[in-house]
Specification:
The chain is of the alpha+beta class and 128 residues long. The protein has two helices and three strands, in the order ααβββ. It has one domain (18-115).
Length: 128
């Protein structure tokens, strides 16, 4: 006759429950990590777009063009929206934004960038 352990029958299937819980927790963590990575990617893209837009606006003014119109075109090409464009001499300061939906919530990423020609010297002779 074999000796039976008490409670052996009530523990049957506990491993499956633990396995299901572990899969749910790991899946949730994976989905959250994907969303955070996607948001970080959008932030980097908006930063790059703002830098590019500011450089293009400054270069356009240097070439005698309309810097803010060029900035608007490049912002749209980079799937961003130009919120403001300020030109002082050949120095361009722009604000660019893009909105994304994360878990049903609209998140807007704003970035400001400034660009000037390479040979630009600020008023007052401030150096680099």
């Amino acid at each position: 006759m074999s000796a039976r352990r008490p409670f052996a029958r009530s523990e049957r299937g506990a491993g499956a429950v633990y396995g299901v819980v572990a899969v749910v927790v790991l899946s949730t963590a994976f989905v959250v990590a994907l969303q955070v990575a996607a948001l970080a990617r959008v932030q980097h893209q908006v930063t790059a777009a703002a830098d590019l837009v500011a450089l293009a606006a400054s270069a356009s003014v240097e070439a005698g063009g309309d810097g803010c119109a060029q900035a608007e075109r490049l912002a749209r090409a980079n799937e961003a929206e130009l919120r403001s464009c300020e030109l002082v001499a050949s120095v361009a300061t722009v604000v660019v934004e893009r909105s994304v939906r994360v878990w049903g919530t609209k998140i807007t990423v704003h970035r400001t960038a400034r660009a000037a020609p390479r040979d630009y010297v600020p008023a007052g002779g401030g150096g680099r």
